[in-house]
Each structure stands twice: as C-alpha cells, then as structure tokens.
Amino acid sequence: MDFKSNHHHKNFIDGVPYATVKRLPFYHRFLTDLSKKEVERISSRELAAKMGINPSQLRQDLCYFGSFGQQGYGYRVNDLLREVNRILGLNQEIKMVLVGGGHLGTALANYDNFSRRGFIIKAIFDKNPEVIGGYIKGIPVLDIKELQEYLRVEPVEIGVITTPAEAAQETADRLVQGGVKAIWNFAPVSLKVPEEVLLENMHISESLLLLSFKLKQRRNQPDPV
Ligand SMILES: NC(=O)c1ccc[n+]([C@@H]2O[C@H](COP(=O)([O-])OP(=O)(O)OC[C@H]3O[C@@H](n4cnc5c(N)ncnc54)[C@H](O)[C@@H]3O)[C@@H](O)[C@H]2O)c1
C-alpha cells in the first residue's frame, strides 16, 4: 500500500492520521517483541489486549499499514513489523553526529539498540581537549571546531545535542549550518531552529518533575483500605 502525501491536511502525515503516527513506536515495540519470540501471527484481539488498547482502535490503525489481516487468521507479525518499520523510515540507515561526549553522550553512544535499528553515530564532537582524539565505544571523538568541515565531507541527517544547557543553542546553530535535517536535543533548553529543521526534545528532568508531582499527589491521598 502506498501512502499519498496529504500535506494540506495537518492531521495527516503521508496519509496516516497523526494520532496513529504517535502510536507507531508503541506498535514497533510490541511487534518487535513478538517477532523475537518467533510468534508468526496474532489476532487483532490478542494484540490489542497485549498492548492494552481498544481492539477497534487497533484494527483502524492497522488499516493504514496495509491489509495484512485475514478473517479468522489474524496478522502476520513480520509483515506488520516490516510495514511499521517502513512507515517509521527504519528500513534505511540514518547517520547521526553527537555533540557533547560527557556522561549522557557516552551513555547514548554505548546504547547498542540505536545502531541495531539503523541509527549510526558517525562521530562525537566535544570541546574538551582531554576527550578529543579518543574513542567512545569505537566512535571517534573530534574537536567541535571540526564539525562544519566534517559535515561537509560526511553529511548526516540527525544531530544529537548532549552539551550543557549553555552550549546547546550555539551547538544547534553549528549543526544547522552544517546541514543537518533534524536535531535530537537532550539539553534543558528551548532551542530556536529554522522551520525546515526538525526538532525533537528529550527533556529527561521534566519527566522526573512530573513523576515528583504524581508522587506528591499519591502521598496526599488516604491509603486504600
Ligand atoms: N547525565 C544525565 O543523565 C542527564 C540527564 C538529564 C539531562 N541531561 C542533560 O544533558 C546534557 C549533558 O549532561 P551530562 O551529564 O552528559 O554533562 P557532562 O558535563 O558530563 O557532558 C557535557 C559534555 O559537553 C562538552 N561540551 C561543553 N560545551 C561544549 C561545546 N560548546 N561544544 C561541544 N562540546 C561541549 C563537555 O566538554 C562535556 O564533555 C545537559 O544539558 C544536561 O542537562 C543529562
């Protein structure tokens, strides 16, 4: 099934409703899990129950991924996963650079699952002479001054920012000048980037603050009897 572009309707991305797109990573996770367990097929009822979502919602979502379901047979897990991967753009390698090879940068570089899914960190950039010239998980750590020249020779699509907050905007500017198409930002800053550059923020501390709030709420509630 081919998706017609539907740019004039902002609730749709490539013919898939945004609400469905937002659930794609969730489908990806469950289908990958089933595929690993070598489950060949699954009914929409079973899959919905596993994922804790409404079966009719699930059937509706899956309609957008192509017609894989067969009455009384269910869905072929691998076909469905392949389609979800295709829609998510995971059927090709995506090159990234990471700026800020400190604690978080090192943790991300060490996380095997990104490269397993095709997200390849080509180089890490830092300004600290003590780390420049070294390697993190086999990835070279280069001088931030070389970023522009590097990207000219080796264009990448995603720039990951794991610098301290104060350095995040100048890092974003450098990445944009270098021609990256998307930024994955972990610094607790609202970055300004041109409209054509995609920005996804991963504000870990904000998530922790939310948890703190919920914890406080629960503490204030009387214990259930
Ligand atoms: N470590 C975590 O678990 C964590 C959690 C939540 C948020 N964050 C955020 O992630 C970011 C990084 O945190 P961290 O703990 O890894 O810090 P860190 O100090 O360990 O690492 C930051 C790295 O960025 C480099 N750097 C500084 N300025 C630079 C510049 N202008 N250009 C290139 N490199 C530069 C430093 O030399 C250092 O290696 C921060 O914005 C922090 O708020 C981190």
UniProtKB/TrEMBL annotation:
User: Corresponding gene?
Assistant: rex
* Span of domain CoA-binding: 89-190
Q: Which InterPro entries does the UniProt record give?
A: CoA-bd, NAD(P)-bd_dom_sf, Rex_actinobacterial-type, Rex_DNA-bd_C_dom, Tscrpt_rep_Rex, WH-like_DNA-bd_sf, WH_DNA-bd_sf
Keywords tagged on the record: Cytoplasm, DNA-binding, NAD, Repressor, Transcription, Transcription regulation
Name the positions where NAD(+) binds: G100, G101, G102, H103, L104, G105
**A GO MF term:** DNA binding
| Recorded family membership | Belongs to the transcriptional regulatory Rex family.
Indicate yes or no for the key word Mitochondrion. no
Q: Which residues bind DNA?
A: 26-65
- Localization, UniProt: Cytoplasm
Which named protein is this? Redox-sensing transcriptional repressor Rex
Gene Ontology cellular-component terms for this entry are:
cytoplasm
Chief place of localization? cytoplasm
Annotated GO biological process:
negative regulation of DNA-templated transcription; response to redox state
Pfam families (UniProt xref): CoA_binding, Put_DNA-bind_N
Give the superkingdom in one word: Bacteria
SUPFAM superfamilies given in the database record? NAD(P)-binding Rossmann-fold domains, Winged helix' DNA-binding domain
Q: Which HAMAP family match?
A: Rex (MF_01131)
| Subunit-structure text | Homodimer.
> What task does this protein carry out?
Modulates transcription in response to changes in cellular NADH/NAD(+) redox state.
Against SMART domains, the record matches this protein to: CoA_binding
